[in-house]
Amino acid sequence: MLSQFTREGEHATLADLGVDFKKDIYPVGRLDTDSEGLLLLTNDNYLKTKLLEPRNKHTRTYYVQVEGAATDEACEILNAGVSIAIDGKKYITLPANAHLIDEPFLPEREPPIRFRKSIPTSWISLTLREGKNRQVRKMTAGVGFPTLRLVRWSIGKISLADKQDNFPKPGDVWEVTAEEAKQFYE
């Protein structure tokens, strides 16, 4: 699904969720059609600006399933910053917070990722303070471990872990509580 309300081609959009969103609701950040996870929608212009303005460097954590047995050394490189191409130009990413994790509890992906019997997969938790186009995919490929599955796990202090008792399925929508919303302003 495209993380927007406007239709482009045949892809589903946020308008297809069957939720009667107010007209002034806007997605904060984007997920490409091959990515999953947390997407914040808001009509709070101050919050939207705060989270979208690059100089504010709010954190976003992704759980990334990669091809191959990822190493601590690869995570150290991700932590230091990786050279990637942005619009055909060399760019060094800001230092990240990357570490190996066990496979997280997630709903099955539809369509499933490609599977190869002879090549293992592993998981990395990757926290960024910037958001370049396809950055996570470029970073993991840059250290030799191409991304197979990409799930945005958290934005700031709001996390899918907060919903472990009633874990959301793809397309689920919930309203953050007033207490959760306050966390974005801290």
Topology:
Layout: E1 26-28, E2 35-37, E3 40-42, H1 45-52, E4 60-67, H2 72-80, E5 83-86, E6 89-92, E7 97-101, E8 121-128, H3 135-142, E9 147-155, E10 158-159, H4 178-183
Parallel strand pairs: 2-9
Antiparallel strand pairs: 1-3, 4-8, 4-9, 5-6, 7-8, 9-10
Protein name: Pseudouridine synthase
Pfam families: PseudoU_synth_2
Keywords: Isomerase
General form: globular
Per CATH, what is the topology? Alpha-Beta Plaits
- Annotation field: number of helices: 4
Q: Biggest sheet: strands, sense, closure?
A: 6 strands, mixed
Beta percentage is 25-35%
Into which percent range does the helicity of residues fall? 10-25%
Report the end-to-end length measured between terminal Cα atoms.
31 Å
Overall number of structural domains: 1
The sequence of SSEs as H and E is EEEHEHEEEEHEEH
Number of strands: 10
Organism: Dyadobacter arcticus
Family: Belongs to the pseudouridine synthase RsuA family.
Keywords: Isomerase
Pfam families: PseudoU_synth_2
